[in-house]
Amino acid sequence: MSVLDLTTVLVCVTAALAFLNARIFKLPASIGVTVGGLLVSLILLALVGLQVPQALNAVELVRGIQFDDFVFEGVLSFLLFAGALGVNSHALWALRGQVVVFALLSTALSIGLVGGGLFALLTLFDLSVPLVYCLLFGALISPTDPVAVLGMLKQAKVPRRIETLVAGESLFNDGVGVVAFAVLAGVAAAAGGAHGPALSLGGVAGFFAQEAVGGLVLGSVLGLLGYLALRAVDDFVVEVLVTLGLVLACTAVALHLHVSAPLAAVAAGLLVGSLTDRRPAALSSREKFDSFWHLADELLNIFLFALLALEVVVVKFSGEALLLGVLAIPLVLISRAASVQVPFVLLGQRQNWLPFTRRLMIWGGLRGAISVALAFTVPPGPQRELFLVLTYVVVVFSIIVQGLTVGKLATQAGKATGERGAGEGTEIKRDSHSG
């Protein structure tokens, strides 16, 4: 099948799912498309069981999609850039300490807790998987993807302080999680006798620093160049082309320099958003510019979640793997709760947390396509198929169950804290029981 045929089929399926959701399900776009895609996948699997030729061809079509390449070299940088553009840079800078602590400490704690818990769980089932691979699973499942949640937070008029903290933590823990996954994959390969020398502690730290710091520096440099280009023109079409080229450049150059493309995209988006906020005249029409990137963000997410749901046909499920996947759900949720709670305790009550902040960060930490894409890049072996099943079960639960219920929590938070902006710049009464 040609690239044109493949693209046509995927876009038409996605459009059909979005149409059905708008007419029937009436759920948030990402969640509705995922539910519809899962139903299509289950019907497809049933037809495969009946040996229907067209269904067998469709499965082979989906199996031919390089999901990890599509995410990492395609949509991820655009999604993170668009997300960073939409974050209030001044509010993010005011919360920079909290965001950094949550993005680094919470992600590291989550990786350790999930990895250690999974190792113990697999041991109970007499499955021998090295600890480093269990930590690898922790790294791929820890990044959060609260795209749908952020929309609900805005709709529920949650104070910008909570919205900014959730958005900032998610943007940076995506990048940190991807870098941690790359580091652990290298350690796993070295421990397994694969190509390359064993990595020392210093080598691991150096690799992490190269990926993370290098990505942030690259994104800042390219973001500054992009901003200077935006200032020099007064044409909306050219401005859009400049930012599209900026995102692609961040991805391509990062891959060649072996630095983090996700963090480069985040840095570039934050810098362009911040500088254009400070100097609105740099854009011919801020409203149209924001509308374009919001539309691109929505379209890519709908397409991504549809593809995510269809990927179920390439995952080999077994009864034991499904049971482990169900058990992995509370493990991931408990690890998320603990990894969020520790920074809350360390940062202390002096941060003046708004009510529901803790709950929204825990329950709003959805897992999405990034986790699935990382699972597809796990080194070949028996653990790869197992991790695919575990990841898929956790992600589907996260998107459907958490995604459908976090809106009510966000509404409660909005009512408890008043209209958006309430208390910003003024003293908010602490509520240690409602965090």
Features:
0% strand, disordered C terminus, 435 residues, Na+/H+ antiporter like fold, mainly alpha
Task: Provide structural commentary.
The chain is an all-alpha fold. It has a single domain (68-417), classed as Na+/H+ antiporter like fold (Up-down Bundle). Helix content is 77%, strand content 0%. It is built from 17 helices and no strands. The longest helix has 36 residues, at 382-417. The radius of gyration is 21 Å and the shape is globular. The model is unreliable at 193-197 and 419-434 (pLDDT under 50).
The CATH architecture would be: Up-down Bundle
Shape annotation: globular
Assembly type of the shown chains? single chain
Q: N-to-C SSE series?
A: HHHHHHHHHHHHHHHHH
Query: In total, how many domains does the architecture comprise?
Result: 1
Q: Report the portion of residues in β strands.
A: under 5%
Work out the helix count: 17
Q: How many beta strands in the DSSP annotation?
A: 0
Relative helix content = over 70%
Low-confidence stretches: 193-197, 419-434
CATH class: Mainly Alpha
Describe the sheet with the most strands.
Answer: none
- Which class best fits the helix and strand makeup? mainly alpha
Tell me, rounded to a whole number, the average pLDDT.
84
Ends distance: 53 Å
Radius of gyration: 21 Å
* CATH overall fold name: Na+/H+ antiporter like fold
